[in-house]
Design a protein that fits this description.
With about 120 residues, the chain is mainly alpha-helical. Helices cover about 80% and strands about 0% of the residues. The chain is built from four helices and no strands. Helix 2 runs antiparallel to helix 3 and helix 3 packs antiparallel against helix 4. The longest helix is centred in the last third of the chain and has 27 residues. The relative contact order is 0.18. Protoporphyrin IX containing FE binds next to helix 1, helix 2, helix 3 and helix 4.
Length: about 120
């Protein structure tokens, strides 16, 4: 279980890096966003995050469920923003606000993870 937890935690850190790394790299762009790191990173965050909570519960580790519910809520908004951004990009619509919302909220989730 501990090994699986470590694997999921490593995935969690890599998913975070994908979203926030691509956010910083493309911060000044107005168009032509590369959205796959944001989209796949957001999917990875939700899947690994829920997996981590599941393992912690199964091994009787005490977790602050309010904190992780808030994190899940924010991560779902990040994922929704990424999905809508991909759809908008295909239609030739505006992507910048959605890209910024996804990156900004991922940073908020880092702050929630670290300071709560
Ligand atoms: C954009 C989405 C997310 C980001 C940026 C993020 C960020 C982080 C960071 C920086 C950590 C390491 C700091 C720490 O251990 O306290 C962490 C750990 C963790 N996150 Fe997330 N997270 C996200 C989504 C989620 C979701 C959706 C869940 C589950 C509902 C979740 C559950 C966890 C758990 C269980 C840990 C390990 C806590 C521990 O072992 O003490 N995360 N996350």
């Amino acid at each position: 279980m501990e090994f699986l937890y470590s694997i999921l935690f490593a995935g969690h850190m890599l998913g975070l890096a994908a979203i926030i790394g691509s956010f910083f790299v493309q911060l000044r762009r107005k168009s032509d966003f590369v959205l796959s790191p944001t989209l796949y990173g957001a999917i990875v965050q939700v899947v690994t995050g829920v997996g981590l909570v599941g393992i912690a519960e199964a091994t009787d580790h005490d977790l602050d469920m309010v904190k992780f519910s808030v994190k899940l809520g924010i991560a779902v908004i990040v994922l929704a923003a990424a999905i809508v951004a991909v759809v908008q990009q295909r239609k030739g619509g505006k992507v910048q606000p959605l890209f910024h919302a996804a990156g900004g909220l991922a940073i908020v989730n880092v702050l929630v993870a670290v300071f709560w």
